[in-house]
Structure formats: C-alpha cells, structure tokens
Amino acid sequence: MSPDGFAVTATDLVKVYGTGDSAVRALDGVTVGFRRGRFTAIMGPSGSGKSTLMHCLAGLDAVTSGRITIGGTDLTRLRDRQLTALRRDRVGFVFQAFNLLPQLTARQNITLPSEMAGRRVDADHLAHIVDVLGIGDRLGHRPAELSGGQQQRVALARALATRPEVIFADEPTGNLDSRSGAEVLGLLRDCVRGLGQTVVMVTHDPSAAAYADRALVLADGRIVHDLDGPTRATVTEALGLAGVR
Amino acid sequence: MPPADVARVGAAGLVTRPLRAVLAAAGIAIGVAAMVAVVGISASSRAGVERELAAIGTNLLTAAPGRTFTGEAARLPDEAVEMAGRLDGVTGASATGRLDLGVYRSDLIPAGETNGIGVLAVRPDLLGPVGARPADGAWLNEVTRQGPALVLGAEAARLLGVHRASADVRLWLGNQWFVVVGVLAPAPLAPELDTAVLVGWEAARSLLGFDGGIGTVYVRTDPDRVADVRALLARTVSPAHPNEVLVERPSDALLAQEVTDRALTGLLLGLGAVALLVGGVGVANTMIVSVLERRAEVGLRRALGATRAQIRTQFLAESLLLSALGGTAGILTGAVVTWGYAWSRGWPPAVPGWAQAAGLAVTVLIGGIAGLYPAVRAARLPPTEALAAP
Ligand SMILES: Nc1ncnc2c1ncn2[C@@H]1O[C@H](COP(=O)(O)OP(=O)(O)OP(=O)(O)O)[C@@H](O)[C@H]1O
Ligand SMILES: [Mg+2]
Which terminus has fewer CB within 10 Å in chain A: N or C? Predict the structure, then answer.
C-alpha cells in the first residue's frame, strides 16, 4: 500500500507519437492521482488520449517524459523485466474485446497471470471472486461457449485474481448490450465497495461514468474537467463543454 | 512457466492450422526419412552379411605367395599344404594353382576371349576347407581328377551358359575337350572359385603343362584358434621366406565390403539434405506467419505479465513441436522403407538406434534454428501495438 493513500500517481505526463512534422502529442502534461479503493472514469472525445493515458499508467507503453508510480514504485525507472513483473503482480486489465485466450477454459484464463508468475491462486479468494461474479458454473467452458457478458465477467475475475493494486478497464462495456453492460458496471462498483479495489475505467458512455466515484474529462491530451460523484447529467454537460455532443 | 502450458500453447498454433503444419513438417519428414533409410539399409545389408558369415563361418584363412625381395613372384614350397595341415588348430588344408589358360565353349572362338574366367588346378580335398559344394553333378573323383574333366564355378557356369553337368557338355581348354562333371554352388568365402573352372591337380600337370606351383593355400581352423593359426601360418607354409607369404582372412573382406550402391546412397543423402533445408525454411516461414497471426495473443500475454523469455519459449516450443512432428514421421517412414528394402533383399531389417537419435537431434536443431528468429520477433512485439491488432 502506498503511504500517501494513492494507488497510482502521474506527474507531468507527456507522450509524443512519431517525430518531426508527423509528431502527435497524445498526452500533454497530465498530472493526476488515483486514491486507493476508488472508482474513476476517464472520458473525452475520440483521440483525446484516453487509451494512451491508460496504457502509460499501466506500464504498457513508455512515456516521453513525466513520472508514474503504482503502489509507490516509479514505473519510468523500471527495466522491461521489472515492468512486466509489476503488470503481472500489481495491475489487472479488462479490455473492450474481452481478450480471453480461446484455447483455454475460463478457469485457465483466470489463473493465467498467476501461472506465468509460477504461483498458485488462493483457492478461497478465487471461489469468492467467482461467486461474486456469478460464473461458478461456467469455469470449465471455453470463451467461445460463453456470452459476451459472461466473457467480460471472466476477464474481470482474471483481473481480480492477483489482488492487484489497480484495475484498468478500457471501454469494458463497449461490446456489450445495455443490460450486460450494466451488470458488469455494477460488478466493477461492487469490487470497489466490497473488496476495496481501485478501478480506473475509460469509457465513452456518460451513464457508465455515473457508476464511478469520480470522472476525468480529457481533451487534446489534457485533463479539462475533474468531477466528484458524477451523474449522467453532470458528465454530459462536462463533455459538451469539452466539445462532444 | 509450467511445461504443460508451454506444450499446450505450442500445440494450439499447430492444431488451429493443421494442413499448414503438415505441409511444413513434410519437408523435415522427407529429409529425416531419407537419412534414416540410407543408414538403415546399409545396416541391414551388413546384418545380412553377418548372418551369412555366421552360417559359413569366419574360420577360413588363405596363404598365397607374394613377391620376393627382388620383386619377382614368390613360390611356396611344394609341401606347404601338408605343413599347414599339421599346424595345431587347423582342421583342414587344401590348395589351388593358377594356370594361364582360357576356356571356351568351342574350338572356333579366338584365344583370349575368356570372359575373365580363370583355370585352377585343385587338390581333391578343396571343398571341405573352402566350404563349397556341387550344386549340380559331382566333385572330381579318383578317376575324373586324372583326366580331361572339370568342375565349373557358379559364376563361370553362368558366363559360359552351362547350367547342368553332363557328359555331353564339353569345353575347349588347352587344345582339347574337357567334360563338365559338376557345377559348384557359390562359395562366398572363396569368390575366386566362382569365376573359375577347376581341373584335377594331376590332370593339370599331365594334360595342361601345369608346373605344380601353389597359388593359394586354404586353411580351415578351429573357430577359437583363428588368431593363433594366423600368427603362425606364414612361417609354417614357407619356413625359409615367411615374409613372402600373404595371409588373409576372406571373411574380413566380406565384412568390409560396401554392399549398398554408393551412387544411390549419395543421391539419397543429397536428397535428404535438400529436403531438410527446405523443411527448415518451411518451418521458419510457418512460424513467422504464426507470430503475425497471433500478435493479439502475444500482446495480451505481455500485458498480463508474460516476460519476453516466456514468449520466446512459447514460439520456440511450437517450432520444436512442429519439426519434432516431422522428424518422428520421418523416422517412422525411414524405418518402413528400410524394412521393405531389407525384406526384398532377404536381409534382417536393422535401423540403428543412433540413426534414430541422430534423426531426432537434427530435427530439434532445425526446429530451434528455424524458430529462433520468429520467436525473438514475437518477444520484441510491444504489448500496446500487439493489443491493437484485431
Ligand atoms: N501508435 C500510435 N502512433 C501514432 N499516433 C498514435 C498512436 N496511438 C495513438 N495515437 C494518436 O494519439 C492520439 C490519442 O489516441 P488515443 O488512442 O489515446 O485516443 P482515445 O482517446 O483512446 O480515442 P478513442 O476514444 O477513439 O479510443 C490520437 O491522435 C491518435 O491518433
Ligand atoms: Mg481508445
């Protein structure tokens, strides 16, 4: 646990893609902190830098300048091997396209990160997660045999299994119908409330952002709004100010 | 990473594209099959020779006059055979002498066209030590060995077109007709008899002007004392000039003989090498495509915490599995080919374990080399780029 209560911090983040005339400043001086046990939504128009911010915060991509800490560890000083270990042990991911391995069963997908670390998953913890997510009877199935909502719940279980410092979710409901989407959002919120999990979620959808404790709005690589206790209405208004109808 | 996961992931790449895997492995299979078959066939032929030797025995020695110190043809003492026969451990001894004559189907054929058939004067007790027997007719007896009668070696009979011994079959030899009284079965330990016509020692002296010089002494020994006899044989047959005697063990020559066709062996080995090369390129190509197709998976695994080494291991495992598949099929095919060829030649089939091990080793080597570049490339994929791939 980070002593100052922040799971993740970013200071003066700059991310430039390409060089010279074709250079794109995807992040342009982002400074933000994510408190432990809080659910944050990141919003903004397409191309505003949401995915880039998430990839940089999660240690998937290197920043051009600035500093990132996860649980007090400075990511920008780590070598690839250490960064890989940090992602494996302290970060959980949920993606829009579920990104489960098709040749593995649901259970094998859930335990994959632990297996790559050469660890066994705590059976009680796993049973609890599976119970909360309601996928106990689907564990022996392969992803192709599961519905979209079920697949995303398996992905969420995979993210929770290693008890990560933070879970990053990029458009987790983008490929789901509204009912399954609402279920997954409800479960994410339960993880924050019930398990004390820190969640950072990128989304386009104002009603998805309403499940979060806080909403950030990005535009052109900068944070332009920071809303506490967002509702559909306040988020929509903030987005409108940022140039999204 | 648990080995089961490595194997599972490796296999998954192959199972999803079975035809491609089979085609890529086929080159390796053909190469390994050719190599295993070449080794197997030569081992089988050797096993065939060994089996034959076990039947005919390896306890025959020959002693022949070599050259004198001044380079002239040496001559063994006339009593060489008797002295050899008295040597401890010798169970039988006999001799032949060479005549510089031709043998012909008719008196009209010009001298010199002998088909390479030699004429040998033989001691009456030759068959025992040499291990030969008449396939047709009879061996020279008390009477026939004194007169114009002969026995044909197996190959000589074939070359002269004589298949049966009969009083009507005569051959022209040294300006007179000789009757064929017998035809010998092939004598593997004394192949020089196969291509010769054999006349009695006395008949050769009285009818053909033979000078009685011994050409080859044949000595059959107690099987356990071959070495002892061999050590003493030269001194025994020629006490005055033992260094002018050439002692040999004909079974050694048989064992050393390359029974298989060298040209065929070379061709098969060349084909095998080319097939292995092509197979290796095929595996490398398949692996590169596999890496491209699985960028999303690689990215996901990297995001979830797979190290570069783990990604490398996975693709190397797939490559090794692919070529091991080909190698195993190749070893099996090579064994079947060997088996069929040996069967058609009447040899006991033999595929040496070292050839199978070598086939597998070559396979692993190729799989490793072919998989290295694609594996390194996969490990270098940045997780974000790979994740973005559909
Ligand atoms: N690999 C890259 N190379 C070059 N430019 C990039 C790359 N990735 C993103 N960009 C650019 O960086 C900017 C931010 O992209 P990003 O994907 O973070 O946007 P986003 O907010 O996630 O958009 P969306 O809502 O459409 O997913 C965009 O202008 C994009 O074109
Ligand atoms: Mg995005």
Answer: C
Is there a domain that residue A23 lies in? no
Q: Is residue A3 part of a domain?
A: no
> Could you give the number of structural domains in chain B?
2
Answer for the pair B76, B238: CB distance below 8 angstroms, yes or no.
Answer: yes
Prediction ipTM score? 0.91
SS3 A27: strand
Note down pLDDT in tens along chain A; length 245 residues. 445 789 999 999 999 999 888 899 999 999 999 999 999 999 999 999 999 999 999 999 999 999 999 999 999 999 999 999 999 999 999 998 899 988 889 999 999 999 888 888 889 999 999 998 999 999 999 999 999 999 999 999 999 999 999 999 999 998 899 999 999 999 999 999 988 999 999 999 999 999 999 999 999 999 999 999 999 999 999 988 877 65
B123: left (phi over 0), alpha (psi -120 to 50) or beta: beta
Residue A226 structural domain: 37-51+79-241
Under 8 Å CB-to-CB from B301, ≥6 apart: which residues? A101, A112, A116, B310, B311
Place of tokens 């499940």: A211
Take residue B234 and report the two structure tokens written for it.
């030269």
Bin B39: left if φ > 0, else alpha if -120 < ψ < 50, else beta: alpha
- Per residue in A5-58, pLDDT (tens digit) is 899 999 999 999 998 888 999 999 999 999 999 999 999 999 999 999 999 999
Residues B203 and B284 occupy one common structural domain: no
Cβ atoms within 10 Å of B174's Cβ, excluding its own: 17
Task: Give me the domain span that covers residue B356.
Answer: 3-53+255-387
Nearest ligand to the C-alpha atom of residue B386: 1
- Which residue is it, tokens 């010199």? B112
B69 plus B120 within the same structural domain = yes
Boundary residue ending a domain (B194, B222, B248): B248
The pLDDT of residue B257 is 64
Whichever domain contains A167, its CATH number is 3.40.50.300
**Residues B44 and B68 both lie in one domain:** no
* Domain final residue, candidates B220, B248, B276: B248
Q: Is the CB of A229 under 6 A from ligand 1?
A: no
A166-170 and A199-202 beta bridge pairing: parallel
Ligand 1 pocket test: which of A25, A30, A48, A168 has the largest number of ligand atoms within 8 Å of its C-beta? A48
Same domain membership, residue B312 and residue B373: yes
Predicted model pTM: 0.70
Does the beta carbon of A236 lie inside 6 Å of ligand 1?
Answer: no
Instruction: Calculate the dihedral angle through the C-alpha atoms of B194, B196, B199, B200, rounding to the nearest 10 degrees.
Output: -60
Identity of the amino acid at B252: D
B194 and B66 share one domain: yes
Residues of chain B with Cβ-Cβ distance to A81 below 8 Å are: 307-308
- Are B305 and A158 in contact (CB < 8 Å)? no
* Amino acid (1-letter code) at residue B343: W
- How many angstroms away from the CA of B307 is the closest CA of chain A? 6
SS3 B306: coil
Task: Judge whether B317 and B15 are in contact, CB under 8 Å.
Answer: no
Task: Tell me whether residue A42 is in a domain.
Answer: yes
**Looking at the 3D structure of chain A, how many domains does it have?**
1
**Confidence grade of residue B1 (pLDDT, cut at 50, 70, 90):** low
3-state class (DSSP) for residue B339: helix
Token digits of residue B289: 């495509």
